[in-house]
Design a protein that fits this description.
This is Exonuclease 3'-5' domain-containing protein 2. One of its GO terms (molecular function) is exonuclease activity. This protein has 209 residues and is an alpha+beta fold. Among the domains are: 73 residues, no CATH class; 65 residues, no CATH class. The protein is built from eight helices and six strands, in the order E-H-H-E-H-E-H-H-H-E-H-E-E-H. Helix 3 packs antiparallel against helix 8 and helix 4 packs across helix 5. The protein is elongated. 21% of the residues are buried.
Length: 209
Amino acid sequence: MTEDRSNVCVACGGDQYLTMHHVVPEMYRHWMPLVVKSKSSRDLLLLCKHCHDSYEQKATAFKKQGVKRFNIPLEGRGWISLPEHKRAKKAASALIRSSDKIPLDRQQVLKETVMRFWNDYDEKEDVPFDQILTVCSEFEDHFKGPDFVEHGQEAIRQLTATCVMNKDGQPTWPDLEAFVKEWRQHFLDHVKPKHLSPLWTVDATIYTR
């Protein structure tokens, strides 16, 4: 699709604070076959900040439906938790954020939690308590394990599991086609763009060929 595009928000026509918006979120697009994602400029549309922020709330809700559909959390699968780091981080953060509102006996419990962890974590002596709190509050309490899988990676794996060769002997993925078109329709239904090119359609091909 080759056309001149106006530098205005496709939703409201505004020309201030414009941003490029991927109709199909990058978390999915990143994992798509090259023959599909190289076509994604078709689905890269201008939105102003207001319209973008308004739609993002609805897009996030739509992404959450994928948790059940693809049986994988949005944050991915395969995180390894560090429970002791998490407890120390939570206690330190509470003391930094709202120690003046926490009863003294509870403050003492939190301080003991932090110091018990710190004594095992660091052999340095005479570290100021405020510094200890800062370090503990910035701990990473989980990390990606060796089997970690991104939500989008798993979704696209499932959507490309069925491959059909077209009449020219080229691979197509019917489930992926439907998925892209679902996002296009969702964008139309919720943004209701008034300045979208008439050449842009939900059923347009997803392939670069």
